[in-house]
Amino acid sequence: MERMQQIVGRARAAFNSGRSRPLEFRIQQLKALERMVQEKEKEILAALKADLNKSGPDAYGHEILGVLRELVLAMEKLPSWAAPHPVKKDLLTMRDEAYIGYEPLGVVLVIGAWNYPFVLVMQPLIGAIAAAPTILTDVSPESKVMEEEIFGPVLPIVTVKSVEEAIEFINLREKPLALYVFSNNKQLIRRVISETSSGGVTANDVIMHSVLPDLPFGGVGHSGMGAYHGWYSFETFSHRRACLVKDLRLEVVNKLRYPPGSMEMMHL
């Protein structure tokens, strides 16, 4: 415990120094991460084969290419993600500056899962580097069958008599990380989506929503907090800071807010 406190202390000191805040530093870190993945590709694939017997297109496509695509997207989009995002203003603030500024949360802990051990650590890591916190990584333990998420070659089957019963079965339990529905009836698919809650949904296939970089991937409730993939990783590890910079040349407009007031002035 003492060693962990020391590690966290050093991470916080590094963050407080401000060295990770400049965009140039973040992009250089992402480039270094890209270089590491490319240079260590064979070692990564060998580890996946040794630990999980995962090889071929599954290992390379999901674990390596998925991470490299995420890195390219983050490096390309980071300047626009990190820029202030203007928001709509009203009559009292029309000449003022109002925007959302994205600032790093600080020291964060990235926890992955063993079924996709590389990509499920690296994708949130990319978002965390882009947002500029300091990162620690660890691995989470396995979950219990039918009580939580199932990460293994197990497929429990529960029969139901109707769509209504299936929806009720889902809603009586904790919200899942993913929900899959198979049907030729698109109206039924839309009904299942609208009447249930889950981290994500794929209809007439499985897991494919997790490979689209423009869709957020993450859980809800017990199945996870936050989301990642591209912009969503950056947003998860950022604080949305509300900023309003008043223009003193229009201070006269503020008289509407100051006493003594009148209904006539409010209707102007």
Automatic annotation (TrEMBL):
Top-level class of the enzyme under EC nomenclature: oxidoreductase
SUPFAM superfamilies named in the record: ALDH-like
Membrane-crossing segments per the record: none
Keywords noted in UniProt: Coiled coil, Endoplasmic reticulum, Fatty acid metabolism, Lipid metabolism, Membrane, Microsome, Oxidoreductase, Transmembrane, Transmembrane helix
Subcellular location: Endoplasmic reticulum membrane; Microsome membrane
Annotated catalysed reactions: decanal + NAD(+) + H2O = decanoate + NADH + 2 H(+); heptanal + NAD(+) + H2O = heptanoate + NADH + 2 H(+); (2E,6E)-farnesal + NAD(+) + H2O = (2E,6E)-farnesoate + NADH + 2 H(+); a fatty aldehyde + NAD(+) + H2O = a fatty acid + NADH + 2 H(+)
Domain Aldehyde dehydrogenase as annotated: residue spans: 3-131, 132-240
InterPro entries: Ald_DH/histidinol_DH, Ald_DH_C, Ald_DH_N, Aldehyde_DH_dom, Aldehyde_DH_NAD(P)
Coiled-coil regions listed in the entry: 23-50
Membrane topology: Single-pass membrane protein
GO biological process: aldehyde metabolic process; fatty acid metabolic process
Pfam families: Aldedh (PF00171)
Single GO cellular component term: endoplasmic reticulum membrane
GO MF annotation list: 3-chloroallyl aldehyde dehydrogenase activity; farnesal dehydrogenase (NAD+) activity
UniProt-listed Enzyme Commission number(s): 1.2.1.3, 1.2.1.94
Family of the protein in this entry: Belongs to the aldehyde dehydrogenase family.
Protein name listed in UniProt: Aldehyde dehydrogenase family 3 member A2
